[in-house]
Each structure stands twice: as C-alpha cells, then as structure tokens.
Amino acid sequence: MSINTLTDWVSQNASLLLGATGQTVYMVAVSGLIGFLIGIPLGVILHTSKKGGLLENVRLNQILGAIVNIGRSVPFLVLMVAIIPLTKLLVGTFIGTTAAIVPLTIGAIPFVARLIENALLEVPSGLVEAAQAMGAKPFQIITKVLLPEALPTILNAVTITLVTLVSYSAMAGTVGGGGLGDVAIRYGFYRYDLVIMVVTVIMLIILVQIIQSIGDSIVRRVDHR
Fold this sequence. Notes:
The chain crosses the membrane at residues 25-48, 60-84, 90-113, 150-170, 190-211. This protein is mainly α. Helices cover 82% and strands 0% of the residues.
C-alpha cells in the first residue's frame, strides 16, 4: 500500500473507526458503572450472608448465589438474544449502542458480584474479629474494615470487568450493537475488508491495554500492603 493510498484509506475510514471507538467506550463505561453500582453491593451481601458471616442468612445466600451462577453461566451472545424483549421494553429498541448496554450490564453484574465476594474473602478474619471486639456494628465493619482492606483487589476486579466488557461489546456488534465489533462484522467480514478487520482488532487491543495500564497504576497507588 503506497503512502497516497494509505492517506486516502485513513481519510475515508478515520471517522468511522473513531466513531465506533467512541461507541465502544460509551457502552463499556455506562454498563460498567451500572454493573458496579449493583454488583458491588451484591458481592458484599454474598460475602456477609454466608454461614458464619456478619449478616448470616444462609437461605438468602443460596438464592443469590444460584442467581449469580446462572447469570455467569449463560454465554453472552445467548444472553443478548434471550433478553431482547426486556431490552426493547427498557430502551425501545434492541439494536444500537444504547440497547447493547442492557445485556452488557446484566452480564457484568454477576461477574462483578463474584469478584467482589472473592476480594472480601482475602481480608484477614482477625481484622473483622478485632473490629467486632471493639463493638463495631456490621455496617461499620463493612465500610471501614472489609471494603478498605479489600480495595486493591476490588480495583483489580474493576479492571478485569472493564476488559471483559470490551470483549462483550465486540460480540454485541454481531447483532447490531454498534462499536468496533459492529464495524469489524459489517465492513471487515461481510465486505471482506481485511484491513478494516485488522485495524479494529488492533484498536480493541489498544483499548484493553489502556484500561489495564490505568487499572494497574491505580492499584499500585492504593496498595500499601
């Protein structure tokens, strides 16, 4: 490919690729935010309601655990198709970037919940017992002991979730979800444009690397262990 040809290709496809990248970031950011707002409390409940936990409720733990396991076991492509009626009910359509946020969020919630539960398991039980001995209430223990002590692991879980959502958002492109995945399917696959396909893959890799690098940097700053 000559320089002139390359210049022409960039001028023709730059806006398409930049727009698709913006759509991917939008989907990942919104679904990640909602997923964290629901998934983190759910993970805390899973941890504290288990047998011997701060707020022991074995029955609740079993029900929530089963729901989370079901949510994690459903392949994302199947999930997108299965909840089309819900997606259409919530946003009025099942095609486009905003519509893709619904399955992305539902896919993220159980994923986040298990990661948070595992993060809280790493907090030494001695710290919790010491807080209880000093008369701390369960809510105080959760907010002042469990979450602060598990913060580095929680932030790492956030990074893992965002990276996973990038791959999920690419899959959403197979059903008209928009973003880089949609460009790869419509232009790279259906139109047999290998260059578009390769460029979208590279841009997805760069996006993942940026998220991972920022996440690792933040974890290093807050981890004083």
